[in-house]
Amino acid sequence: MKLEIKWLHYMPHLCISISRPAQAKRDATFMTLPKFAITATQLTTHEKSVLYNRLYRSLFRIRRVEEEIARIYPTDKIKSPIHLSIGQEAVSVGVCAALNPDDVVFGTYRGHALYLAKGGDLNQMIAELYGKITGCAKGKGGSMHLVDVRHGIMGTSAVVGTTIPNAVGYAYALKYQRKDAIVVSFFGDGATDEGVFHESINFATLKKLPIIFICENNRYAIHSPQWARQPLDNLVERVRTYGLSAARIEDNDVLEIYERVSTAAKAIRAKQSGPFLFECMTYRWREHVGPNEDFYLSYRSRSEAEPWIQNDQVQRLAALIPPRDRQQIESEVESEIRQAFEFAEASSFPAASELYTDVFKEE
Ligand SMILES: Cc1ncc(C[n+]2csc(CCOP(=O)(O)OP(=O)(O)O)c2C)c(N)n1
Ligand SMILES: [Mg+2]
User: Is the pTM of this model over 0.85?
Assistant: First the structure.
């Protein structure tokens, strides 16, 4: 085994690493994205146009909200750390477009995209980031703890892996109550390193629960690449050994994510099969936490990011809709965002007494 300086960059926390030719080959494959094909959704031309408009609105809205968050962040008006989904929006958007309003989702601290894609209130989200009383968690949760139960966003958490068993428990309750709704559990590739992930999928599969697991695989847990944490790049194969139906979706492809999740959701609702897991390959463009780029840290390179940026799903969908629709969507979204930041600015901070409310469940 040969020590190589190159790998030191990937593992700044360990300061020593080992050359792995097989891994290098896998990384090379990862970096060269195959061309995506526009998937053959079985829809009429009109239905397709409605779908593309809807997906574009959602993708563009999330991108612009997060760009505004990044722009405002240095002013210190935003009172919590931020983990941006810029580059990863397609996963939340594709999945949530396939869900019904009464379906529920559980997410992670990188939760802005999920919250917005599932229909979370934008005013309350920005107010939450500002730490204001009008926020979705009354200013006590910040960016990492978004919640909007009315729209099926049951919670997001800073603790890696923690909402996976919460989601499974909710799905168990739905099955008991013979409800038709389904649960979607979102987590990162880093969460699949946790024991609770395996316990949860085992139990969910055993009990045939109405749940879809979505792994947003951006290949990094903070600065640790997947290859430094897992001996094989075979999540889908591993979870299949529990009896779970699982597939990888390459290229951040929003249409394919939408199609695959729609089909899985239909099968669960028809009690034909389930649960399912989709490993959605995606890429984080900004730093792990904060508003900036981080290629200067050298744990990853700009050239690695480039194919993902070229394959931007916001631009892809923009090109699939008529320019007039696009302009209208963009101007409506911009005005909605302006109003949300004004709402947050105008709102008050919570009173000190708020520290004692909603902390414990009261009967
Ligand atoms: C239980 C737990 N362990 C460790 C951490 C520290 N931590 C915060 S984010 C993170 C990486 C998680 O990576 P991933 O699940 O891939 O999500 P991503 O940030 O890539 O979206 C870690 C290890 C934590 N918050 N919780
Ligand atoms: Mg990750």
Answer: yes
